[in-house]
Amino acid sequence: MKVQDIEIPYENQRGAKYRFFEILPGALSWSILILPFALSIINPTLTVFFIISYMLLWFVKSIGMNIRALQGWRIMGRQRKLDWQSLLAEVQLEGHIDKDFERPKWHYSNLQLLKDKPRLVKPDDVTHVVMIATYKESREVLVPTIEAVLASEYDLDKVILIIAYEQRGGPETKERVNGLISEYKAKFHDAFAVEHPADIPGEVIGKGGNITYAGRKLEKYLEAKKLKPINVILTTLDSDNHPHRKYLAALTYTYCMTEDPKYVSYQPIPLYTNNIWDAPAPMRVVATGNSFWQTIVALRPHILRNFSAHAQSMQTLIDTDYWSVRTVVEDGHQFWRTYFRYDGKHEVYPVFLPIYQDAVLSTTYVKTLKAQFVQMQRWSWGASDIAYVVRTGFFKKNKIPRFDMIAKTLRLLEGHVSWATSALIITFSAFIPVLLNPKDFGANQLPIIVSDLQRLAMFGIMISLFFSLRTLPPKPERYKAHRSLFMVVQWIYLPITTIFYSAFSALYSQTRLMFGRYLDKFDVTDKAVVTKDKKRVI
């Protein structure tokens, strides 16, 4: 499919069919929420069976998710311990080296694959580009991100640093960014800043326009340096993203073992733990839940998508004309751009090493609560991709296998509808039949049955608690021992945060989409840093 065919249509280009599929997720979500009321009036017995079936389905799904989370945590632990440099040396030579070190079993299989069919790119040919997108974030936010890249167990002479910043950030941002480039340039193969001009026609105000503009500047730079785009891996980072010290080496290994990396995106695991000790309790619960979910998704390749920090070959980015400048969810949307550009020949490979990110934290408690909702609303705006996927996949000529197109579309729709409805149905639906039919035996028994199922599901919270404690960074000295106790007690907020920040944000986004109230601006999430004297700096 041609590049021009993968663009999101502008608002004035969206016909009735497109609007129908923009309305669909919200219409389905509201219908599902209304359904228990309607069924209770029509047939309370049928309502009881519907709700019990729904609860059992989610009970089984929750067991599966908890198992996946534990598996993901175990794999991450193993990947952190690997000697990736030695593994890369063997991939380069396509055979064993003399050094005595422990190799995972899958590495032997990979070496055999190399003998049978050599790959396109060898480790020594790889150049990494780390692109940090920033708006007005302070030096206190940006420096730890750059230092985290510098701490990589990887040859930094193969790493190019780019800071993509917004002209809208003002002269202070320009001065700050260029000062950082001057300070750190000598420590990388190269480093430079790219200013994204304000108010480019056709662009929404967001990250997509910023990194796309920088990507096009990079393309010209690589041409001048005669670096092949297929040998260049670009990782996009937000200003608060701290890659694990072994991330670049692990990414290189995965990239070089890919048969044709042009058709693959590479997704590390976001863990929202940078400032987890400083964030308020509700935000800590939300952050841990997001980390928990990203770990689960890494083990479910059929639903794994580009999210936040991710990597692609420069060749892929050139072929897709970089990221979309017409949406505020450029990360997840980039999966679909690539998928359609290559007529369905596109996958996302997990890299089981973390990119440590910030939990939401602003200057005040109230601002933090609001900022968390805004962030979740922006993430859930991915429901806008449903109309785009249907239009591009079904109403435009392509070579994508029909079954794959149908399966991916249904998963996308189901995921967003479940996001908006599941927490509300699980929490409240059992009380609706008895409220409307107080004398019905089945309706009276339903809350008891559901309560028993919910008690069994409480085991899942223990898994979440285990996950949160194991992912915690060391406690800062400015906090006393009782802060650790709060990390356990905080889980009483889980029902509240799930409803208000997960379900309500998704429902809000879908309702806005139904009425054509589009998000045309990327609201940057506050990334406050707490200093030793407990002051918050953004």
Please describe what this structure looks like.
Strands 3-2-1-4-7-6-8-5 form an eight-stranded mixed β-sheet, with helices on both faces. Strands 9-10 form a two-stranded antiparallel ribbon. The chain has helices at about 15-40, 45-80, 85-95, 105-115, 140-150, 170-185, 205-225, 245-255, 280-295, 315-320, 330-340, 365-380, 385-395, 400-430, 430-435, 440-455, 460-470, 480-490, 495-515, and strands at about 125-135, 160-165, 190-195, 230-240, 240-245, 265-270, 310-315, 345-355, 530, 535. Helix content is about 55%, strand content about 10%. It is built from 19 helices and ten strands. β9 and β10 (about 535) form a beta hairpin. The longest helix is centred in the first third of the chain and has 38 residues, at about 45-80. It has two domains: about 5-45 and about 405-535, no CATH class; about 120-365, Alpha-Beta Complex (Spore Coat Polysaccharide Biosynthesis Protein SpsA, Chain A), CATH 3.90.550. It is an alpha/beta fold and about 550 residues long. The radius of gyration is 24 Å and the shape is globular.
